[in-house]
Give the backbone structure.
Amino acid sequence: MNSQTSYAPGRAELLGNHTDYNEGYVLALAVDRGTTLTGQASGDRTIRIHSRELNQDVVVDLDHLAAENVAPWSRYILGVVDQFRRHDLPVEGFSVEITSNLPLGAGLSSSASLENATVLFLSKLFGAKLDPMQMARISQKAEHDFVGVRCGLLDQIASLMSTAHHATTIDCRTNEVGHVPLDGKTSIIIANSGVKHALVGGEYNERRSDCEAAAHALGVRFLRDATTDQLKARQSELAERIYHRALHITGENERVLEGSDALRHGDLARFGQLMFESHESSRFNFENSCPELDHLVATARQTPGVYGARLSGGGFGGATINLIEKGREDEVVHALTAALPGVSCLVTEAADGALAYAASHPA
Ligand code: GLA
């Protein structure tokens, strides 16, 4: 039987926190680990999914897909199948095995990696022709409808469209994606705090609503349309919490633009400062950090060889991203693991996204 394999990596958010659904700017990258799907068409209407890591199976009928009836981990796959059906894309029954070397719930978006791998797998198996942005949108919509997180497009785009040795710039209004070379003298360390974040339906969606309330109060469509100066001038018109949420977003957008320039000029010191400022704003304005992440960032700040560190992704637990001088990985990993019991570090370079990876690994 005609077997197909697909792979999509996890991502890390370098700068630009919660800016994506505010139509703002993001700097991200793909990590060198991800999710692999291997399987074949079953010739009937049955979907059989086996997760090797969880050692669990889910078997469902293609014509009766419902998020509430299936194990939560399988919703990322079945949500994509559901989107294929809603978009009248070709899809039939199949059997698939998932393997992953990406830690779950560690802020590396194992979810987008699984969604994107599913989009690629189904496209190969049943012959759908999708452009990269359509793929990203299908993954995102699967997460909205089947998982219940109203995420932006950062994770899906970074996992699909990143390029090795580069940071990926995303303008979340125009969906323009670019690549800025990351100085060859850097490494990335993802420090997983071990604190599980539960984005599903919870604080993530509340932050999104706060941002929408701020945009409404300011009379703009999205916070992308406001600057920090404009916001400060109208502080008295906004409830305090809403004001601080908005301040995080306008500040993040400005930091991403400045940070992209700093990277283009090889100014890693300035870029690192912007990362620390971003974390401080998460901690104080957006309140999506936690004591463990704050401690990891404070430790990084005092560790030689670290340019910058901040929480990466949704927050409320998960991981910090540390941009460091290449060659100092062991020292920094040692400092971070000594600072917090249970922390685990992953050293990565900016890797190829799923599309570049597929192009260099033809089936
Ligand atoms: C999660 C979401 C993304 C983005 C980040 C925060 O990873 O899935 O869309 O909003 O949080 O920047």
Observations:
- The CA atoms of residues 272 and 307 lie 4 Å apart.
- The chain has two domains: 4-179, 182-348.
